[in-house]
Amino acid sequence: MKLVSSEDEISSLCSRWREKGLKIGFVPTMGALHAGHLKLVEAALEDSNRVVVSIFVNPTQFGVNEDLSRYPRDIRRDSALLENLGVSAVFAPDIETVYPRGFSSEIRVKGLTDGLCGTYRPGHFHGVATVCAVLFGIVRPDIAVFGRKDAQQLAVVKRMTSDLRLGVRILTVPIVREKDGLAMSSRNAYLSQEERKQAAAISRGLFAAVEACRGGQRDCSALRDVFREEVEGEPLLSVQYIVTVDPNTMKKVEKVEKEVLLAVAVFAGKTRLIDNVLIEPEV
Amino acid sequence: MKLVSSEDEISSLCSRWREKGLKIGFVPTMGALHAGHLKLVEAALEDSNRVVVSIFVNPTQFGVNEDLSRYPRDIRRDSALLENLGVSAVFAPDIETVYPRGFSSEIRVKGLTDGLCGTYRPGHFHGVATVCAVLFGIVRPDIAVFGRKDAQQLAVVKRMTSDLRLGVRILTVPIVREKDGLAMSSRNAYLSQEERKQAAAISRGLFAAVEACRGGQRDCSALRDVFREEVEGEPLLSVQYIVTVDPNTMKKVEKVEKEVLLAVAVFAGKTRLIDNVLIEPEV
């Protein structure tokens, strides 16, 4: 496996693969890899002949009061994990490589980025969309793999990739969960023991809403209440948002008539966690 | 020459050329072609094996009170001119092809789009940057050719193409002028006979500023005054802006120490005309 920090080097490596007719899969990450990331990589390995994983803690998607400086970093451990899986190259550029002097462009995906996390993290999705376009431009993969935990990010990246005809197919992978149901996240490392224990209520609440729908409840407001009740039982948790939206447009939905995304952001102490489920009307 | 309106058709045509190792040149236009456009096409033909010209009056780069509806359109005449030159394909999509249902992305090139035309045409350059990225994504040319008359547009497109690693090299072509010096523009068709006559003062003013610099004047404020005096002699002309800026960053400059762009927008009656010259310090 190659560990590459130079743009020219990764570009020409990928060009050579393309010229040989090899299919390139790409998994953009911020490192601090967990089992969820590894599932993305496995999906890429299954689909493509060569897999590139980027590790780049992108400053433009962090707000001023967010956790950029303390975001967990361990490139050695990450590289070892990726090498074991059979990844061909890790691209770990520094900030000046991704954003050279004079960099001025920003991609906004209007509408999709207004609600949910966009309300509380202004500019976050502009940062995500822009860095994805840049990384896609450098690597020029055939496919890129994203997890469904960041449901709004996924919708934004899909829309942007299609709008700007970047020529990259987006594959998605289901949320990977801990045994008690907590969605895998690099930010879980911030949780105290007690916060970690209570955080299990987030997925319990989501699954309870799915069950309520199976039981006949089609009213989204009632489903959101099912979630809220579960989480409000835990004193260290506080809900930032609970929404029911169309998974592609992120527009609010009040009845389960087709697939609905129930997406939430919950603070466990000072740590902000997100999670979601897709709720489908029984057929 | 092929006249294509479908995205799939132009994409697969260009893919076939690429697979054969042919170099693709691209000239994006809004039609109403004049001798300036034809110079762009000639530059593309000289550089590349196959040349695609797009004709698309892009609504997102027009302001609400601008001339979108009356912008001149003559696809037959344009096509005939391009076929004569040896263009391989004209891509003339409709609005829904370029911006399919749900299209939500917008590219902003910060800083570069604030001054000059950006001040008076808010959103204009977001529209230009976005449509160029979309068209580049559809055609995937090796090179794209732009004229220097739209100096700010050129800076924006260069920056965006480089920032987002679109893999397209930008070629530029000097301003083509009428015999009396007026820069070629599709909007010259709007001018009355008297406006047309007086409009020659715009280029006279620019050339006078270049002469003044050759004569030793390095103070940009004085050079702008040289231009202003020339234009103020014509009663049907009124200056919207006169700026001296760095041609790449569009940042204001007050001394001619390296290449300076003197860029102007002038109303001739109700028609807004732009023009510019590069002023270089004598070596």
The overall strand count of chain A is: 10
Q: What string gives the helices and strands of chain A in order? A: EHEHEHEHEHHEHEHHHEEE
Q: What gross morphology of chain A would you assign?
A: globular
Strand content of chain A is 15-25%
| Strand order in the largest sheet of chain A | 1-4-3-2-6-7
CATH class wording of the largest domain in chain A: Alpha Beta
Q: Main sheet of chain A, how many strands, which sense, barrel? A: 6 strands, parallel
Show unreliable segments of chain A. none
Distance separating the two termini of chain A:
46 Å
CATH architecture of the largest domain in chain A: 3-Layer(aba) Sandwich
CATH superfamily grouping of the largest domain in chain A: HUPs
- CATH topology of the largest domain in chain A, anyone? Rossmann fold
Largest interface (C-beta under 8 Å): A-B, 27 and 27 residues
- Overall mean confidence score, pLDDT of chain A: 96
Work out the count of structural domains of chain A.
2
